[in-house]
Design a protein that fits this description.
The protein is an alpha+beta fold and 388 residues long. Helix content is 41%, strand content 17%. The chain has eleven helices and ten strands. Helix 6 runs antiparallel to helix 10 and helix 8 crosses helix 9. It is elongated.
């Protein structure tokens, strides 16, 4: 296969990170004509499925939030035509394309609220409506049966997605995301108050092959706990000041971990090398084999981020601080296609805030700003500066 270098068409920010994490883009390495090691990405087989799930979620939301009828009648002479609304047409195309996400069939109970509703309805009604389409796969709503069934589907979506139980679940996920974002930003800020310069690393840790099904059953907890324990106790890399680790589930990627690790930037500067140590430890020491585990060093694509948060982050560097905020937003998102069961316990883990003694001397030159973390507070916590 001819290597495909993603630099030919760069993807900016968390969009790229999300594509790699979900398995849409697969990293690989090769030697060029000079024998130098090069890194690239190729499209995985799951891009259509991931795009479909995004489209399905959007179509269901649009129907739920609209009160418009799924079609309107138009009289032309003695004839009556039926024209589908834009929302209903998107819904139909989401229903008819359900085969694209066939690997997710049977996992509806694990899906996020809107995706779950859409997948259940699409699987039920696509086989019944597929025969009422034209050569362009458009639904023939001029016939009574498909018109009546489309109205029924729209009714069900609006009834379910406006129910108190459904809305409470959606709000619970949004509230969880807000709370985790706030807590993790405050945590990062607590480290920045003690250490003016931080070295930030990011990686994704995966399981492969037979380990995927074991992970889905919660049977790799020992590996996860070993990694977190030895990371916290500084047995993997020295001088760890903090970490944030988030467990997620994805369409074909399955259970995986998003990781942010923070060390003292006055003592360390080799972000790439340290991240490689982290991923290697996960593969060989925690899971035990490259056939069962893999990792992605986010340093490889740090230039693809609009606001980069990989490498040295100084308390006065506005661009890097914005990158930290975006990275934490990505780590704490709850609008994933698949949700982890409650039996998995905590899926967001972070270290403890440092406790600095009053008489402890800070390394390096004294900070020049009177309120030296005001910029970081404004960016990470959304605080506004006092009016002058």
């Amino acid at each position: 296969m001819q290597p495909h270098n993603i630099k030919a068409a760069p993807l900016i920010g968390q969009r790229f990170h999300s594509l790699v994490s979900s398995g849409v883009l697969s990293p690989f390495e090769w030697n060029d004509e000079n024998g130098d090691r090069q890194y690239g990405y190729e499209l995985g087989e799951n891009k259509e499925a991931v795009d479909y799930l995004n489209f399905l979620q959007s179509a269901i939301k649009r129907i739920a939030e609209s009160k418009a009828p799924p079609w309107k009648e138009v009289s032309i002479g003695n004839r009556t035509r039926y024209i589908m609304s834009r929302e209903a047409r998107s819904l139909w195309h989401a229903i008819r394309s359900v085969e694209l996400a066939h690997k997710a069939w049977g996992r509806e109970s694990e899906m996020s609220p809107y995706v779950s509703v859409g997948m259940r309805l699409a699987r039920k009604w696509e086989p019944r409506l597929r025969f009422f389409t034209n050569t362009d796969s458009e639904l023939l709503i001029g016939e009574e049966y498909p018109r009546r069934m489309l109205a029924h589907i729209v009714f069900v979506i609006r009834r379910v997605c406006t129910s108190r139980r459904f809305l409470d679940r959606v709000e619970q996920l949004k509230r969880q995301q807000r709370e985790n974002l706030q807590a993790c930003c405050e945590y990062f800020l607590s480290i920045l108050r003690v250490h003016a310069r931080l070295l930030v690393m990011r990686a994704d840790l995966y399981v492969e092959g037979a380990a995927k099904s074991a992970a889905g059953e919660g049977k790799i907890e020992q590996a996860v706990e070993k990694f977190i324990r030895n990371l916290r106790e500084k047995r993997i890399i020295p001088g760890v000041l903090g970490y944030i680790i988030k467990r997620e589930d994805a369409y074909d990627r399955g259970i995986h971990l998003h990781l942010m690790v923070i060390v003292d930037g006055d003592k360390h500067f080799k972000s790439y090398n340290l991240t490689e140590i982290l991923t290697a430890y996960w593969i060989y020491e925690c899971v035990g084999s490259p056939n069962l585990a893999s990792g992605f060093n986010c340093y490889l694509r740090k230039d693809e981020y609009l606001y980069n948060a990989i490498g040295l982050v100084h308390y006065t560097d506005e661009g890097m601080l914005r990158g930290v905020r975006e990275a934490i937003s990505y780590l704490t998102k709850t609008d994933c296609h698949f949700l982890l069961p409650k039996t998995f316990g905590k899926n967001m883990r972070k270290g403890q805030s440092p406790r600095r003694q009053e008489d402890e001397k800070r390394r390096g030159a004294p900070r020049k700003l009177s309120n030296d973390v005001s910029l970081a507070e404004r960016i990470l916590l959304g605080k506004q500066e006092d009016a002058q």
